[in-house]
Amino acid sequence: MAMLKRSSRAQRILLPLANCCGILLLWEYAVLHGWINPLSLASPSAAVKVAASSFGVLFPHILATTYETLLTFVLSSVGGILLGALLMHWRMFRLAVYPSIVMFQLLPKIALAPLFVVWFGVNIVSRLSFAGFISFFPIVLATLAGLRATDPLVLKLCSSLRASPAQMFWQIRLPYAVPLIMSGLKVGMTLAITGVIVSEFVTVQNGLGYIIVLASSNMQIDLMFAALGWVSLIGLVLYGTVLLLERLILMRLGAPVTGALFQPGEVVP
Amino acid sequence: MSAETFPTGVGLPAARRLGFFRRHADGALLPVGFIVLCIAGAEILARILAVPEVLLPPPSRVLTALALNASALCYHGALTITQVVAALFISLAVGIALATVFTLSRVINDMFSPLFVVLQIIPKIALAPLFVVWFGTGAWSHLSFAVCLSFFPILTAARAGFEETSADAARLCSALGATSWQTLVHVKLPMALPQLFVGAKVSTTLCIIGVVLGEFVSARAGIGWYIVQAAALSQTANVLASLVVLSLFGLSVYGAVSAGEILVRRRMFG
Q1: Do A96 and B34 touch (CB under 8 A)?
Q2: Residue B7: left if φ>0, alpha if ψ -120 to 50, beta else—which one?
Q3: Of A203 and B21, which is predicted with more confidence?
Q4: Do B110 and A7 count as a contact with CB atoms less than 8 A apart?
Q5: Which of B39, B63, B87 is the last residue of a domain?
């Protein structure tokens, strides 16, 4: 098989852009000419128009979703990193709990969403705890894996130089763990917004998830696309922020920054 | 500890018995003990503090609910699991097909792979109601939503697998005059199998999430529908019972994929 040539940088940037424009134009044209029922797929221009005209209505919901996602992310990353560090240091606890956490990852935890409404009611506490519950465990596992991935030779050197356990943790283990922790945080951020949206579907109180469900039941497909656009934008911006943070910390530490935007293991719903 | 975990001590020196315990303490006893402790703790807590059953039904009550609603759970569970398995196979087909196209054509790869990356980062779960608008409230809507969530890990895995094919093998194939298609089917695909199983394992969980979430948003049957109904009636024990069923499903599908992986590995690598 002939090896495919590596494409040039321009090709790798221009082609997707042209492709995007092409898809949007085709979509617009198809809806305009009635090839697609506008009741099932709003044209991009209609969605943008609605997004602009209903911005005043959408704004509080955009704010609510962003706020809840950020709060969830902060809480579950602080908690997750702390628990990960605890698991590393306390061997018995790790041996007892680690298999359960790994198995827990395989279960469809999203199915618990209605239960959080029963437990906490229709309010922000219910949404935050559900989203936290979804996004917490990957961060714990990533932190633990990172903290245990330290080069054993370095650890041996440090202990022979009589480094204290605290020094070993702060100056050796934690910096070594940064790439994996950040990878966990990226998954955590995506899961935080996923959890918030699902919770908004179930609590039907406010947020963009609520708008999407409402628009879907009213068959306001253009409003729905506007809300979906906002959700995607928030998701991308928040993910981009974590990505930026990762690059900054890695650069600060002088670690090599890989070109990959995300690892295969970071795939989430 | 039960008699099963402790060997019958007759004739065994005490030190060796302790050794047996030590050997198994790390591997199995501690995790199992932890789970048992959690369940027992929930049972005792629920009973002593007389927590209302809506908030925390004791595990024994969940078991009773499981037995009482066995027929309903089986009916809805069978619907859901059929969709999950179908979604997994469709995702495999879609993921491998897309990866094939991406491998064969650099231009298509350049055109679409950034789009898929963006699609991957945005919370696709928000699309669930859209599938209801498109496909109604039936199985098709849940199935297509689940496929939309879960084909991506397979696509990533298949691409990684195709790229991993050794350059020597590819060169040998082209020297022997194999077409790209032949190389793909006879060399790259088998060599990508280990990676594909990694992707399939991630997809399994996503398939279950997709189907159940689809059923949450709109359905007339299925475990997700059952959970929403039970939660609306504050029957927490029933919610937990259906979660037990769902978890068992999830673990067995995952187990089946893992078993397939082991089989393939044995056949391929001895």
Answers
A1: yes
A2: beta
A3: A203
A4: yes
A5: B63
Using alpha carbons, list the distances in angstroms from residue A204 to A123, A176, A197, B246.
10, 43, 10, 24
Distance (Å, whole) CA B51 – CA A221: 44
CA–centroid distance for A209 within its chain: 16
Whether residue B7 is contained in a domain is answered as no
**What is the number of other CB atoms lying within 10 angstroms of the CB of residue A97?**
21
Looking at the complex, report in whole angstroms how far the Cα of residue A23 sits from the nearest Cα belonging to chain B. Answer: 11
Judgement on whether residues B126 and B174 belong to the same structural domain of the protein: yes
Option in B106, B115, B234 nearest A7 (CB): B106
Q: Looking at the domain assignment, is residue B1 inside a domain? A: no
- Chain B, nearest residue to A218 by Cα: B133
Min Cα distance A108 → chain B (Å) is 6
One-letter amino acid at A123 equals N
What average pLDDT is seen over chain B?
83
Among A262-266, B47-51, B52-56, which is the least confidently predicted range?
A: A262-266
Asked if residue B178 and residue B108 are part of one domain, the reply reads yes
Q: Is the pLDDT of residue A42 over 90?
A: no
Quick check: B126 and A228 CB within 8 A? yes
Residues B75 and B208 in one domain: yes
In a domain, B162, yes or no: yes
**Pick from B8, B30, B63: which residue ends a domain?**
B63
**pLDDT, tens digit, for every residue of A50-109?**
888 888 889 999 999 999 999 999 999 999 999 999 998 888 888 888 888 888 888 888
Reported as a pLDDT band with limits 50, 70 and 90, residue B86 is very high
The reported pTM is 0.83
Whether B11 is covered by a domain: the verdict is no
Calculate how close chain B gets to A11, using CA atoms only, in Å.
7
Q: Are B200 and B88 in contact (CB under 8 A)?
A: yes
Assess whether pLDDT exceeds 60 at residue B167.
yes
Quick one: B233 and B189 in the same domain? yes
Domain that holds residue B253: 69-269
Triad B114, B119, B121: Cα angle to 5°? 100
Query: Model confidence at B5, in pLDDT bands (50, 70, 90)?
Result: very low
Asked if A103 reaches chain B (Cβ–Cβ under 8 Å), the answer is: yes
> Do B76 and B191 share a domain, yes or no?
yes
Q: Which of residues 220-249 of A touch B (CB under 8 A)?
A: 221, 224, 227-228, 231-232, 235-236, 239
Quick one: B81 and B33 in the same domain? no
ipTM above 0.85, yes or no: no
Instruction: Give chain A positions within 8 Å (CB) of B136.
Output: none
Spacing of C-alpha A74 from chain mean position: 12
